[in-house]
């Protein structure tokens, strides 16, 4: 079979024939799913090389110490004093602010304290919508 004497139709048939023969072999033996291969190799490597390390000595008579307690003791963090920010303002600004923002009477409750005592309105809306959706479904 002379390749130079093939017309286009015969050449396409020959190419398809070779492709049908070689494509399954190439897919099976020449190509690799790199993600699956990497996952398999890493899993195999970690399975045989990693071992669990106990957090406490099994032969010890004492209970293990909490890591946070060890850190606090090693840094001597219990002796730290909390930072207190001091407000420094010029002398003429303080009377000006007091004139525009008078102090609250002692019986008045602060807004940030009141907010915790109020009911959550979101729950009420959820209850309303839930009843509406069920009644809507029944009327359908």
SSE blueprint and pairings:
Layout: H1 8-30, H2 34-49, H3 67-75, H4 93-100, H5 111-117, H6 121-139
Structure description:
The chain is mainly α. Helices cover 59% and strands 0% of the residues. The two termini are 76 Å apart. The relative contact order is 0.03. The mean pLDDT is 77.
Work out the helix count. 6
Tell me the structural class: mainly alpha
Q: How many strands, what sense, and barrel or not for the largest sheet? A: none
- Arithmetic mean pLDDT: 77
Distance between the termini: 76 Å
Rg, nearest Å: 39 Å
Percent of residues in beta strands = under 5%
Tags for this entry?
140 residues; mainly alpha; 6 helices; 59% helix; 0% strand; elongated
Structure summarized in a few sentences:
By secondary structure, the chain is an all-alpha fold.
């Amino acid at each position: 079979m002379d390749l130079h004497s093939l017309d286009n139709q015969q050449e396409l048939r020959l190419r398809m024939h070779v492709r049908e023969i070689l494509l399954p072999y190439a897919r099976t033996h020449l190509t690799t799913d790199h993600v699956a291969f990497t996952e398999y190799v890493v899993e195999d490597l970690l399975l045989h090389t990693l071992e669990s390390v106990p957090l406490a000595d099994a032969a010890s008579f004492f209970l293990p110490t909490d890591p946070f307690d060890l850190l606090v003791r090693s840094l001597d963090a219990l002796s730290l004093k909390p930072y207190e920010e001091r407000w420094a303002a010029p002398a003429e600004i303080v009377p000006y602010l007091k004139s525009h923002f008078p102090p609250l009477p002692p019986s008045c409750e602060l807004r940030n304290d009141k907010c915790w005592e109020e009911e959550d309105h979101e729950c009420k809306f959820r209850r309303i919508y839930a009843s509406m959706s069920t009644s809507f479904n029944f009327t359908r």
